[in-house]
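Per your request, structure below.
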């Protein structure tokens, strides 16, 4: 189950691979974002109607540690469920002691570190000018020192930018200081528009080979998975509930839906038409969402 606590695309970065589009507000200024009572009510309702989630993931449509309420958010989730709380973050604000302090009650954290050279970091993540790579790495080291849960470090590889052997060697020199439990290599393969940013499987395996030995586990996420192939053979009756559930939880563009389902364009468009006969399907500024109630 996903929890989103910052407005859409308010982020410290504007990553070249971001599936949410361009950052609308690039900032390093942390802010209050939570109406505690409303959040608690919405959470309780979502937990009651969610069919057995595996965990509660704080991520969403911007950088969640920009919210000064992130600690409160984790505490409220833990008050209402025993599910593990997972935080997905770009790790850019952990150089600030209070940001680390506020996330220590999470069960696991998936921070990203896409590059260990300033040049590649700037090209891939396009950070706010107030953020340097050194601060990000120091923040991750501090996070490890103070956080006792699992840390799964995510590295997103972009073709020709941070996927070379030299890039891997630089990361291999830094990662042992961060001591993550696992490194997950991933790449922007799943959406058609971003697939051109993906390195070749050979480059990904070569990269993983350099990192192996620096951490207990290096995992390549998605290389052996080809969801498009698998889902194309699925029946519409199986794909429709996935789309409905997604659009009830959060707005999504057509491309987000293509990426989530792996369906070809024509089939996805037909399914959306069918869904709109039973549900109130709103489309605003390119985002689809399902509004509670039934279409008449
Ligand atoms: S950190 Fe995440 S939300 Fe922010 S720009 Fe990068 S991918 Fe998008």
């Amino acid at each position: 189950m996903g929890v989103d606590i910052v407005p859409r695309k308010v982020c410290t970065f504007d990553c070249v691979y971001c599936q949410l589009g361009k950052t609308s507000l690039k900032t390093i200024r942390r802010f209050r974002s939570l109406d505690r009572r409303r959040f608690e009510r919405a959470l309780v309702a979502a937990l009651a109607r969610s069919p057995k989630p595996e965990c509660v993931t704080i991520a969403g449509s911007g950088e969640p540690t920009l919210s000064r309420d992130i600690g409160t958010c984790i505490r409220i989730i833990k008050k209402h469920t025993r599910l593990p709380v997972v935080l997905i973050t770009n790790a850019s604000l952990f150089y600030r002691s209070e940001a680390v302090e506020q996330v220590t009650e999470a069960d696991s954290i998936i921070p990203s570190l896409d590059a260990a050279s300033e040049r590649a970091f700037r090209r891939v993540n396009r950070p706010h000018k107030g953020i340097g790579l050194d601060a990000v790495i120091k923040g991750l080291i501090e996070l490890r020192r103070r956080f006792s849960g699992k840390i799964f470090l995510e590295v997103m590889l972009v073709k020709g930018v941070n996927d070379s052997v030299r890039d891997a060697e630089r990361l291999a020199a830094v990662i042992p200081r961060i001591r993550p439990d696992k490194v997950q290599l991933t790449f922007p393969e799943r959406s058609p528009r971003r697939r051109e940013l993906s390195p070749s499987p050979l480059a990904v395996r070569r990269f993983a080979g350099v990192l192996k030995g620096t951490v207990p586990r290096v995992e390549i996420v998605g290389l052996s998975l080809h969801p498009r192939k698998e889902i194309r053979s699925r029946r519409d009756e199986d794909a429709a509930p996935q789309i409905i559930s997604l659009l009830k939880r959060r707005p999504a563009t057509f491309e987000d839906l293509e990426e989530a389902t792996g369906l070809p364009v024509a089939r996805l468009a037909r399914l959306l038409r069918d869904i709109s006969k039973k549900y109130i399907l709103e489309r605003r500024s390119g985002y689809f969402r399902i509004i509670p109630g039934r279409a008449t």
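The radius of gyration is 20 Å.

Regards,
D.
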